[in-house]
């Protein structure tokens, strides 16, 4: 595998086909969106053209999310959705054309891989996702792997939620949640309630919040079966998190809020998917990279990538002390801006604040270069105030370094405490570091600074904190399996 491998992710949608080149860290390096086709040969031609355009020397595999039932183990499409790729060996066709390994899976499974890789469920080892659109798609993950059953488990839109008076579903059953709580079903509920064609969820949600009983009834009729399905999935899988995605995912999350509160055993945290229409291509790219690793005998992404704990906070926020406490407990090395800068400041005369800032930028890149050259599987603590550089630069450095898993400890204290701490250590600072004149600026910074939120976040108010064990426990659990989803 190349030093900085990437993969091509393809997401076949009902309207568009998306193609993207995905880094090992799950970042989109390039992306193309074109109109799709229901005709098989036309669609295959579009897909192969998109792969050819995205292909490059560092692409090691191709992943494709396909609508319909897919035997993920064999790579065979069992039945088609709006594009029927069954009755042809699509996986072999692409492998022969591009001489690269190919991973195929249901499109919702790929979307879930994207969300657990870099999205709203980042790092979760167990998760369930429903995509709410024209129909309802689904996928489940357990121990970091998509649940496939004997062939194609995950047809979660076909959970039966209305035995008595439900509608006939295309799958052959009656009362599937897809027939009750999909986008198509919402249109039917609106029509039956007498709303004109073109009425949207946003229109009736405003009315429902104002107490309109007709609007509230429509929302409850639409969301009630969905909540029944969610409760069933929670009981069946007991996932760390439940995600709602697709074009109507956000509306579905909001609609569930109109239902009366319930109590019971199965209360899984529910979030809206974060990657939007990119979830499928990101997940397909990550699945392709995992396939390439397995073929070459490499460990999985969970063991293969580099892990970083960002100990983040403004100067004098207490982050350095906490970094050392975590390092002593875990053995993870610390990379800090001052550790790199200070030897230079000791030997260079006439340093002013501008030069110190320039040296800080270089040190910032040096930190991520050290991580880049470290062995796969390494874990680092990076002690820095990340807000002094644009967030986009941090993302570029992370991608360059090959970091795949990130957690963040956000250190903060009241502005007056930060000012006192900074003033107390001025005498020991090397020339070039900002002096007392910086304190008013620091006070303002303390009031508006925020964490990066590129991964799970543990918030620490460092005033009077002496027991660092909870932080250490969280960091270890989060970066060795990313299991603690409730601290974000």
Describe the structure concisely.
This protein has 488 residues and is an alpha/beta fold. 41% of the residues lie in helices and 20% in strands.
Please render the helix and strand layout as text.
Elements lengths: L5 E7 L3 E8 L4 E8 L4 H15 L4 E8 L1 E4 L4 E5 L9 H9 L3 E5 H12 L8 E6 L3 E7 L2 E2 L30 H5 L1 H10 L8 H9 L3 H25 L3 E5 L3 H8 L13 E3 L6 H17 L5 H4 L1 E7 L6 H12 L3 E3 H11 L5 H20 L6 E6 L6 H11 L1 E10 L2 H10 L14 H10 L8 E5 L7 H11 L9
Parallel strand pairs: 1-4, 4-7, 8-11, 11-12, 13-15, 13-16, 14-15, 16-17
Antiparallel strand pairs: 1-2, 2-3, 5-6, 8-9, 9-10
Helix pairs in contact: 3-9, 5-7, 6-7, 11-17, 12-13, 13-14, 15-16
General description of the model:
With 488 residues, this protein is an alpha/beta fold. It is 41% helix and 20% strand. The chain is built from 17 helices and 17 strands. The strands form four sheets. It has a five-stranded mixed beta sheet with strand order 3-2-1-4-7. It has a five-stranded mixed beta sheet with strand order 10-9-8-11-12, with helices on both faces. Helix 5 (183-192) packs antiparallel against helix 7, helix 6 packs across helix 7 (213-237) and helix 11 crosses helix 17. The longest helix is centred in the middle third of the chain and has 25 residues, at 213-237. The two termini are 33 Å apart. 43% of the residues are buried. The model is unreliable at 481-488 (pLDDT under 50).
